[in-house]
Amino acid sequence: MMNEINADELILRALREDITSEDVTTNAIMRERAEGSVQLIAKADGIICGLRVFERTFKLLDETTVVEFAAKDGDRVKNGQIIAVVKGDIRVLLSGERVALNFLQRMSGIATYTAETVKLLAGSKTRLLDTRKTTPNMRLFEKYAVTCGGGCNHRYNLSDGILLKDNHIGAAGSVTRAVELARQYAPFVRKIEVEVENLDMCREALAAGADIIMLDNMSVEDMKKAVEMINGKALTECSGNVTRENIAAITSTGVDYVSSGALTHSAPILDLSMKNLKRTV
Predict the structure, then answer these.
(1) Spatial CB neighbours of 106, under 8 Å, sequence gap ≥ 6
(2) With 90 as the cut, is the pLDDT of residue 2 above it?
(3) Average pLDDT of 10-29?
(4) What is the pTM of this model?
(5) CA 233 from centre of chain
(6) Over 80: is that where the pLDDT of 3 sits?
(7) Among residues 210, 224, 115, which one has the least CA distance to residue 163?
(8) Is 156 exposed, middle or buried (0-12, 13-18, 19+ CB in 10 A)?
(9) Angle between helices 4-18 and 139-148 (to 10 degrees)
(10) Is the pLDDT of residue 104 over 70?
(11) pLDDT at residue 11 in the model
């Protein structure tokens, strides 16, 4: 669930980006308040996500705006389906349209892309994770969208978990030393994840007591050997160049998790539109 206070701050930032002083076009044709309504319509099939963010965008412009939903986050929508009707001051409906749609289209695109990827894991024990490869200032929304699509969140940010990657290991001097230093610093409730690039590093991470071992950019054959070597003594995660074409081979190795930056950095938007605006008073 998203933190609404943090979400408000980010939505307001997006509104200020789009309206630095006024919406000159709307103000030119609408000099005073007039009540109206407009429909939110799907222009493609997919998973809808971000409806509360969509609604909040209009309410931050005018709290009296009303959004009547015919779907909820996580629902599948069809091309041509009316998802919601927005009612309120026509000036608000016009001024908030682009920002509200930008959030909703982006989040729905990620949810749809994630759901399609989750299907490829059907029948395996492997679970799908996202990464920190998110759009700046959009992480809160993008990671929520992954969960709407049936994926799982990896750590939210650098304060959220210990992940010793290649450069951390280089800075510490070795896998063993990096794990030792992390264990000394971190409270006992924190798990320590180590990224390894070959079987020797995997062996060292296992001996050092890593809780999670990330198999990064390893061949399918080496991943199978690594999973066998670890044998349940640590959780396993696969990352690096994970695609829809190779994900089946990756899950066949028996890894517990597969993380994919593509969920957030490569998902296309879901096409949505606000149409049929009319005055109601």
Answers:
(1) 50, 135, 138, 141, 142, 145, 269
(2) no
(3) 97
(4) 0.95
(5) 29
(6) no
(7) 210
(8) middle
(9) 120
(10) yes
(11) 97
Place of tokens 């319509």: 41
Other Cβ atoms within 10 Å of 5 Cβ, number: 7
> What span, in angstroms and rounded, lies between the C-alpha atoms of 138 and 50?
12
Dmax (CA) for the chain in angstroms is 73
Q: Which two tokens stand for residue 33?
A: 């308040």
Q: Which residues are catalytic?
A: 98, 133, 165, 195, 216
Rounded Cα distance, 59 and 185, in Å: 44
pLDDT at 5 over 90: no
Provide DSSP, 64-120.
T-EEEESS-TT-EE-TT-EEEEEEEEHHHHHHHHHHHHHHHHHHHHHHHHHHHHHHT
CB-based contact 51:73 (threshold 8 Å) = yes
Contact 175, 204 (CB under 8 A): yes
Q: Rounded to whole angstroms, how far apart are CA atoms 191 and 188? A: 8
DSSP string across 171-202 = HHSSHHHHHHHHHHHS-TTS-EEEEESSHHHH
pLDDT at 1 over 60: no
Please state, for a pLDDT cut of 70, what percent of the chain lies above it.
98
Q: Residue 50 and residue 146: Cα distance in Å, rounded?
A: 11
Return d(Cα 5, Cα 279) in angstroms, integer: 32
Residue type, 100: A
Given a contact cutoff of 8 angstroms between Cβ atoms, the answer to whether 212 and 235 are in contact is yes
Structure tokens at 178: 């990096």
Write down the mean pLDDT value for the chain.
95
Task: Tell me how long the chain is.
Answer: 281
